[in-house]
Design a protein that fits this description.
single chain, alpha/beta, Rossmann fold, Helicase, Ruva Protein, domain 3, 3 domains, five-stranded parallel beta sheet, flat
Length: about 475
């Protein structure tokens, strides 16, 4: 009978997991502390370890490394209460089998079955990098899509493989590239970025490879290029789809042979720079139109990361809003206490065609212009052109968001099968949905209670009793 170790400080959750996994005909040992788990790992020879810790302290990482030692490493599955950038990258980089936000017990049972069946194919461990909050901590998002990206970064950071980051403008492609660099063995060397679309073609070759004195008009001195300067580090080629075919040929040579010449030079130079490229174009379409080399495409995408648009991960908008409010509260020295609930809903319902960059700019503008200390819908008049309604955010986006929030609240309440505030689960779920509908109506009517009550078909007094309190986040002093 296969043995599974569960380590989690939450006794209730340990019990639920144990009951769920015992149905797989496994011997399940539920433990509270990492110390107990370390001893059991040596004495019990488990087939799987499940850890319920969000952030990797040294003792959790020691346990993971212990599990990964020997000729028969034990897979470690991390079930985080709240997914995080640092946790996902560090756990995966240290060799965790997988890092998941806590699934329900039915889904967990299926995941564990797969791991037990495939654990013999698990990969070997890699060393943990030095702790660096820096750039990695600036990637914000706990959606399933972002957690998968954090895990992939953790897996590939230590290698020297070329990476192609794809996604719409404003999704954070350079930030992902910096995060890979900061978690790599090259972190103490330079990270240099080149925007291939922003530099004229006549100058791009010089920018990348350097030039010798007299190579062209105005070249009054020799100059090193980015490949030479980033030797041993990382070079980030942004908007790589805008490079000309001759420049692409020279990039291909660097990838294949690590050699190049400066413009106007005869000496062959070498560059051990890791290349991370990014584009918001479809390189496949560029190849079909003979605008991009197919051999370079496959050289660049040894590993491919696709960043989803902000529209595809609406649950991350609130996290990004809070992050940018705190950021510009500190940088602008303007006292911002928080943001109203209706403003949160308004921002979550926006299309954000410019993605995270557009959202950040909106928060920065609102913070600078705000006079009350709490951001509200009225602080974002420049966004109203997006909706076409002149007032609030309505239509399918809000309905979809309301359904998502209602489902999330219902799942949480039903998971523990207990009443809250003295109410049965059913009434708590109904209250949650009702509150979301009231918030949406007030948002649509720009806070006008008479119009909102008329829209909902209830009296104004009834509306007042059902109105939720604003939920400002606390700014940092």
């Amino acid at each position: 009978m296969k043995r599974i170790l569960i380590i989690d400080p939450d006794a209730s959750y340990r019990g639920k997991v144990r009951v769920a996994l015992e149905s797989l005909a496994c011997d399940v040992v539920a433990l509270e502390s990492v110390g107990e788990a370390s001893r059991a790992l040596i004495e019990e020879s488990p087939a799987l370890v499940i850890s319920g810790y969000d952030q990797p302290r040294e003792e959790e990482l020691d346990l993971l490394r212990l599990a990964r030692k020997g000729s028969h490493p034990v897979p470690v599955l991390v079930l985080a209460r709240e997914g995080s950038t640092r946790g996902a990258i560090d756990f995966m980089d240290a060799g965790a089998y997988d890092y998941l936000r806590r699934p329900d017990v039915t889904e967990l049972r299926a995941v564990v079955e797969d791991i037990l069946r495939l654990s013999g194919e698990d990969s070997s461990s890699v060393d943990l990098p030095d702790e660096r909050e820096g750039e990695a901590a600036k990637i914000i998002g706990s959606s399933a899509e972002m957690i998968e990206i954090y895990k992939l970064i953790g897996r590939i950071a230590k290698s020297d493989a070329a990476v192609l980051v794809q996604g719409e403008s404003g999704t954070g492609k350079e930030l992902v590239a910096r995060t890979i660099h900061e978690n790599s063995r090259r972190a103490n060397r330079s990270f240099l970025a080149v925007n291939c679309a922003a530099i004229p073609e006549t100058l791009l070759e010089s920018e990348l490879f350097g030039h010798e004195r007299g190579a062209f008009t105005g070249a009054s001195y020799s100059r090193k290029g980015k490949f030479e300067l980033s030797h041993g580090g990382t070079i980030f080629l942004d908007e790589v789809g805008d490079m000309s075919l001759p420049t692409q040929a020279k990039i291909l040579r660097v990838l294949q042979e690590q050699t190049f010449e400066r413009v106007g030079g005869e000496q062959t130079l070498t560059s051990d720079a890791r290349i991370i490229a990014a584009t918001n174009k479809s390189l496949v379409e560029c190849i079909e139109s003979n605008a991009f080399r197919v051999d370079l495409f496959y050289r660049l995408k040894v590993v491919s990361i696709f960043l989803p648009s902000l529209r595809k991960r609406p649950g991350d908008v609130a996290l990004l809003v809070d992050h940018f409010i705190r950021k510009y509260h500190r940088e602008s020295k303007i006292s911002i206490r928080g943001i109203s609930r209706r403003a949160r809903l308004y921002l979550e319902a926006q299309p954000w065609t410019g993605n995270v960059r557009e959202l950040e700019n909106a928060i920065q503008t609102a913070v600078v212009l705000n006079r009350t200390g709490t951001l509200d819908v009225e602080d974002f008049p420049f966004l109203r052109d997006h909706s076409g309604s002149g007032g609030g955010a309505t239509g399918p986006n809000v309905l979809e968001r309301l359904r998502e929030e209602a489902r999330r609240a219902a799942n949480v309440l039903l998971a523990d099968q207990s009443g809250r505030a003295g109410k049965p689960v059913y009434h708590n779920c109904v209250d949650t949905v009702e509150q979301a509908v009231v918030d949406a109506a007030l948002l649509h009517c720009a806070g006008n209670q008479v119009r909102a009550s008329r829209m909902l078909g209830i009296s104004r007094n009834t509306l007042r009793t059902k109105m939720s309190l604003d939920d400002p986040i606390q700014g940092e002093g």
